[in-house]
Amino acid sequence: MTEADVADTDHRRGSDQSLVDIVVGEQISQRAALMAILLPSANNVSVMITRLVDDSLPAFVARMNATARSLGMEHTSYTDPSGFDDGTVSTAADQLILARTAGSDPTLAAMVSTMEYDIPVQGRVTNTDLLLGEDGFVGIKTGSHESAGGCFMFHARRTLDGRTVDIWGVVMGQQGRNLLTAGLYAARQLVVAVAPMA
Description:
Layout: H1 3-13, H2 30-38, H3 43-53, H4 57-70, H5 92-103, H6 106-112, E1 116-119, E2 123-126, E3 137-145, E4 149-160, E5 163-174, H7 179-194
Antiparallel strand pairs: 1-2, 3-4, 4-5
Helix pairs in contact: 2-3
């Protein structure tokens, strides 16, 4: 972590973004960085990790958009690595493609099903997916912002007609006093409607 990283984190703190605490000289593993992004949605780490992949933020965002196109996500345009920027747009259908693609990777699937993880300096972080481990929910990622509402791409496993089924879904734009809770509630309602508990 550099002085520029700390300054960027402090700048983001002023706009009420989800972050983890960092200090100059801190070193964390790639796994810890990904856990910071996947569990509490650390926007500051999302930006830092771009250095591992590309030389610049614009190059990384261009790679994100190229990957989205290659997956068939035709209505998605990324303008930043975290999704916080209002210029980033997508649809539930496109995000469902991403959820199924990412969820098919065993390592990533294990990461998003983790309840808590210890990160240097910040300490223990908790998964914002509060449905994890309940009603068959096994992941994937929450998100919330004034302009996007409560969002949740989810994966649940339920028993239907005596067999286990995987249910993938995405809810976006949910409104309520707590946007995160609104997104989780909408996802739970969808899963129960598709595969009621016996």
